[in-house]
Amino acid sequence: MSLEAFQEISPADFFYRNRDIAGFTNPSRALYSTVRELVENSLDACETSMIPPDIYVRLRQPVETEKYPTTYEVRVKDNGLGVPPDVIPSAFGQVLFGSKYRLRQARGTFGLGVKMALLYGQITTHSATRVVSATIGSDKIHEYTLNMDIQSNKPIILERKVKPNNGGWHGTIVEFSTEGDYPRAMPKIIEYLRQTAIVAPYADITFVDPKGRIYRFERATSKMPKPPKETKPHPEGVDVETFKRLLAASEAKTLRDFMMESFQRIGRKTAEAFLEYAGLDPKKTVASLSPEEILLIVNSMKSYGRFLPPDASCLSPLGEELLEAGIRKVLKPEFVAVHQRPAASYSGYPFIVEVGIAYGGGIPKEDKVALLRFANKIPLLFDEASDVSWKVVNSLDWRRYKITMDMPIAVITHLCSTKIPYKTVGKEYIADRPEIEREILCGLREVARRLSTFISKRRSVELERKRLNIFLKYLPKLASFSTRLAGKKEEPDIKKLLRKVSRLVPVDEG
Fold first, then answer.
1. What is the per-residue pLDDT across 6-53, written as a single tens digit (0 to 9) for each?
2. Can you give the pTM of this predicted structure?
3. φ, ψ for residue 103 (rounded to 5)?
4. What is the spatial distance between Cα 259 and Cα 500, in angstroms, rounded to a whole number?
5. Cα(340)–Cα(323) distance, rounded to whole angstroms?
6. DSSP sequence for 121-137
């Protein structure tokens, strides 16, 4: 009887074997995911330092197109804060290495996206990645050519160059080859960039496709949202493993001091009240905690219910002004209403919902409301029917707001949080958490009411215009007939009369 062989695989090897779960299911989807991940990386690099992003994306096929029909050369350049030279190899050649593992809002979540794009390119074209970067104020530009050792999850540096930064440039350039299917991916790539322009109206994005066609998405404003601040965890969102890590990192001696030091919005009184609720002495030493007591504390934090709400300074919502600017710039509607909900939380994680509704203008008429979904400023283009926003939009009684499905309407939902409850690693749709669903519904009702008011006023204006047109048609004839009948020569001034009968529509006095 043979023994089963056991082995360990690295994170890179795991995602190499299971790349479908990260959105790299086929050449078309992989090319879309590649563009998306690199653009999001560039946007984060700019927004962190409040730099209005200038992003250049180019897809190009090799000269020998017939020999490599599905190979594309990818180049993305930004003007962000740059990557420190000592971390460039790991930042681009080691899966699950990155700057996203902090408690604040960010587009990236797993330290995975860009590395998956580079990994996919490596395994499909057997080519290396070139990274050029300079940090703000640096007098040197660093260039690396590297690959990823999939089995060990370590970067392989093939070449390194350093050259003077005479022009004071800062940012990052990433170049590599990958397998793709641009004709099939094109609609999603263009739509992704178009929707990105809605939630990043302060960005200037240029895309050059394999045919040499240039797509420009110019910034509508230079105003940017405040970057998120790093914060401590909220006690309701902590599990046993996180609690143990906080214990190991803390220098506090007593439980009371540990609670005050390690968690957000907990002062002396709150710490003592909670520990009394949990049945533990506030002066008990942290080092003497047993596994059973740790579990007791964690469970008590979830059931206590009297902690202050999570701190929302770790979030960076767009704000109503920027969201409206993005909607007007891209969708060009006749009417826009936006509403930002107050900060709320689920399972100890803060979140803010922003909802917009656009009507008429450049929005086409369809048999349903067009839904544009965003999470942490990321457009979500796939699996719409599985998303919580879709559920809310379809549950709303639109007739109550005098809105029918054949009207040219677009609904925009944006969720920002330190932890978006995605259902997949591919970050395509959001789980229907009751707290999030409730906030989206409240926001949607608010903007729907504003649209209903606009539609009602417009209908009133149209009815008044029809009524006025009747007077405009017949009053001159009546005035002329009455003048002759009365034996007068001068007809009365009917404009004064028209001003009296008109309530909503101004009369042209010219």
1. 667 777 777 767 777 667 889 999 999 999 999 999 999 999 899 999
2. 0.85
3. -85, 80
4. 72
5. 10
6. HHHHH---EEEEEE-TT
